[in-house]
Amino acid sequence: MEKFDAVIIGSGLGGLLCANILSKEGYKVCVLEKHFQIGGCLQNFTREGCTFDTGIHYIGRLGEGEVLHQYFKYFGLTEKVKLKKLDEDGFDVIGFGDSDEEFKYAMGSARFAEKLSENFPEEREALKKYSETLNEISDCFPLYNLNEIKTNIDETEFFTKSAFDFIASFTENKRLQNVLAGTNLLYAGVKEKTPLFIHALINNSYIESAWKVVGGSSQIADVLAENIINDGGTIIKSAEAKKMIFEGHELKSVELANGERIEAKYFISNIHPSETLKMIDPDQTRSVYRSRLLAIENTISTFNLYIVLKKESFGYLNYNYYYYDTNEVWATGNYSKENWPKSYMMITSADPKNNEFAESITVLAYMTYEEVKKWENTKVEKRGEDYEEFKKERAEKLIDVIEKKFPDIRKHIKSYYTSSPLTYKDYTSTKEGSIYGILRDCNEPMRSSISPRTKIPNLFFTGQNIILHGVLGVTIGAVVTCSEIVGMNNLISKIKNA
Fold it and tell me: How far out from the chain centre does Cα 456 lie?
């Protein structure tokens, strides 16, 4: 039986970052990945020469001097990952089905407020206060700025106040309220539940600066994997962890699907906490703890449409487009077969040979797991004709809705491909294909949060479920997880001086 200092289950971003940190610190690390490809949500796939991202569509706070740029320097990513900055005057554009008016998110706190003031001149002061408050909230989270900044904000409010109520406190204008919540698809917000810190940290991140990875986000996984191996670490693909083995109440090893056991001093799970618990005998954890983790609600999933465009046919959009069929962005996850989709997010990727035109388009629309549950025991590409018909019917409906804002879209389509919540579940091991993991609830902030430290002393969680999803959130989560082993002050000092 091979022995390591740390075994990390899952090679998603959180797992790879933890492996980088620990291997840098001299730990003998092993990453286990059940698929033949590493990366989790960083994975890409290629169709007809076009590269499509599966989970990481754009990244915030990555400009020179900004916090994620410093994290990327520490991980050796800044010089090796190709990036493109989105339109500074409108990196996100919000549209509604009842109007031709568009609303642009601009980069920079002051510019953000000023740009939206063109649509809402009477709300200029409210917009300034709103964007300034996003900055103040972000400053209250030390790892989001790598500096100690003191504010007078009551931090408990971040977790107990809803994002909806937070936005409504700045303006009574319903259209503006919906515009400010217009990037809801970035966090799958629920009106009565989503805490304001989720909305504030995510939106502030992109307002600081917004970037696309050119050529596919799997570049990030490739660089991180190379770092791990160069530092003496091991990555094993097609190695599914099935059971955690204890001696008494001490976790000693992980048993793989092939029966092999891998021993370590520490274990970090980058897969969903409820999936982790399936590998642990119930008598090794308190029933109250187990029940709480298993009962936490998860965010909704999405149906994804991947369009290959005809050459030099559709212009490249250096922004992300969000569409809502009505002036109510919080309810689009509640739909019927007849009125689906009620919203979507659309992203274009530039043609590498001619940046004036788009090479492909990715469109995301909310979809519940219940819609595909009857096929959950099937395998990828072997789900049957009825499943393929279901996806085709939904793709055509989605294109119909896209045509409301982009009337000629069909004539530009060469071909298209689709994925459902089942696809996402199978490739990322996310429970029920949940796009952002657990759903935080401002009404029960403690019950709907997960600590990196588990009730088993040498087992830790990492990934999007412990701090926040997204590249910055998962990066900070990895730092928090590894600080349990190597110490926070030591780690932060090294990141700041990278």
Answer: 27
